[in-house]
Amino acid sequence: MKKTIIITGTSSGIGKHLAEYFGQKGHRVYGLSRKNTESDYFKTIPTDITDEKAVENALSEILLSEKRIDFLINNAGMGMVGAVEDATKEDIRKLFDLNLIGAVQVMNAVLPKMRDQKAGKIINISSIGSEMGLPFRGFYSASKAALDKVTEAIRYEVSPWNIDVCSLHLGDIKTKIADHRVMSTVSEPYRSTFNKVFALMNSHVDQGTETAEVAEYIERLLNKENWKAHYYFGKFGQRIGVPLKWILPQKTFEKLMRKYNQFSS
């Protein structure tokens, strides 16, 4: 059965691939992104999701054509790199405004319709890095961890209406995310270590999972009846970090993370 799917952040990367993938399957797909993207497979509604009124207007436009909203994939987001000490308040606010508040505003916009139809599913795209404080990506980890906790809370709140919500934690995906990161000016004490970690970070993205595999995984997830709160998808070497974080003593886990990130002993 064909579904109505809203996807945020569809101008490039994972979001664009998801929109085209589901559009090719015959679903009615609406992409919300700041940039207008021409496609034969989905309709773009230019929307800054950090602007609450713009989100409301986009949903009103969709509901002029659609009787239902079946799925929301909250994909829009950005990365941020640099030492915690070097981050500016402005950059931190910008990051949380998109990765947390923007995602919440889109959820809030679709929930009234999902309650009316007593059904709906929402995927909040998170990161494996939300389960741990990644060096030189501390605020990115924090922004996604905050979204995870909101996801856990809202699952209880909307369950009476048969609405399901989950966090999908992705590892490194082969996209141009590096082109859109917020990047702090790195101060001298951190520069040598940062340069090494940053090069490794980018190599992990270059060798990351293909977006086509993400789309196929999400399609299987959307077809599941009952969701868990959290799903993890990516290279094994990254996914294994999650259970290790849970079971290992903190000092042992930190030692492994230093080795993985090639910190000096």
UniProtKB/TrEMBL annotation:
Pfam families: adh_short. It comes from Chryseobacterium lacus. This is SDR family NAD(P)-dependent oxidoreductase. GO terms for molecular function: oxidoreductase activity. Belongs to the short-chain dehydrogenases/reductases (SDR) family. It comes from the Bacteria. CDD domains: 17beta-HSD-like_SDR_c. Keywords: Oxidoreductase. The lineage of its organism: Bacteria, Pseudomonadati, Bacteroidota, Flavobacteriia, Flavobacteriales.
